[in-house]
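FIELD: query
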Amino acid sequence: MENYKRIKDIQSGFAQKMELHSLVDDPTGIEIMNFQFFANKNIETRGKGRTLADSITSFRNSLQQQMKTKKANPISISNLLDVDLIFQSIESIKKCLLSIESKFGQSHLLTDFPYQELIFVIMNEDKPETVICSIECINYSLRFAGEPHQSLFNPDFICYLFKLLNIQNTPFSMPILKLIGFLIQFNSELLIFCMQNNLINIVSQHLPKPFAVFVIQAALTVCSIEIANELLFYVFNTILQTEDEFVIKQVFHTLLIFAKRFGCTSIPEKIMQLSPQSQIDGILQESENTSSIEIIYQTIAKYMHESLNFDLIYEILQFCLELPQLNPPNIFDKVIEYLLDDQLKSKHRVAAAETIIHFHECWKQNITKENLSILMKMINEGNLDYKTNQAYSKLVIFFYEIDQNENCLDVLKICIDGINDQDTTFSSMCLAIILKILSEVKTPNLLSSCFEILNDSREYLLTQLDSGDLSDEKLEKVMVILKMTEKFLEFKISSKSESNEFSNH
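FIELD: result
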């Protein structure tokens, strides 16, 4: 009952500010029969027996009918309508959105959604379950493509949400913080407004819960470095407070956002330097002299060696790509294990390959010929998807050293395919290795096989010359390779001819 009273008190301050004139003055002014709720007309907007159009129409009809008969601006819409009906219609909209998302994904543009009506319900209803369902309904709608509707940035609405957040033991924290986290990604001014309204302290009360970490992630996408450093304090506090792997995954995604925007070198050396307050409570009191980077590296090693949560592993490896190339964490053995595990998803294996390449200067002594042979076998079998094949090919090229066996033939084929790769560093390496193979292979039969492969690829190489995609330096190298191949074949034909003449005598 206390929450009901607090909600009513809050609503009294906003009752005059949030009106739906179009509903009160002209309840028939909104066409409700033929809405096209998705830009893609092929989407069947049906979920749990009712279409999205049915559910939204039911919601709008209920609200319009009651507002038509009661033109007064009430503090609580509970006095005006069947609350169960309005709750059921909003819940039906939410279920339809979830059903559509599961069937068609999130890439479709949602149009003509009842945001203003839902905001009206949120600001005028005193039943927590109806308010929560309305906020969740908005949150689910925001998963689809497109920017948030402008009505969601209404200052009165945002202020009202913050007042709800400040209710003691409020049941609204999770859906509201999710909504605010999503909105501030699209509006840096909204972030400043939220910071002025004590957003960080509110969020910190809910750490290490994932939805609180999400708000920090969202803020980091638009905030200044000063605010980002303050947010990092809470990120590290979260690392030290929890072993929940889902939360740790969110933490590493948060660190990745920071690193991509500001660089890992922008992370202050000591945790105490991150504190926005003169006194630090809780676990951080014991960590006054702890290095921020040391905590990161220890956490990386811990979960790489202990966790079986591959989504967490993926986030860690993505973050590792932002670390200094000459300072890798102690995780090589686990990364190579993931690299060679053909049961893992492509994105995990690609991430492992990219991580090894990133730290190749430090890890080149750890990669064995056996590792490379296994990778080349996987490539030659042709069962890899395109991204994994590309990642494995690049790794082989980065670590390959010329030998006098048939492995060089497999490497040569990889290099030919990589000549026109969009990764210019990789394509340059491919050309350099082709020339190196031709100059360093000493075994006659093996060298002959190399030139035969190049001759078989002659049309492809000539196409590259004419494509206009190669730099002058690369064009020159391709021309050198073609000339070497031509001379070798001329020599081979000449030698064969002389041999035939000798045998005829």
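FIELD: remark
Strands lie at 46-47, 50-51.
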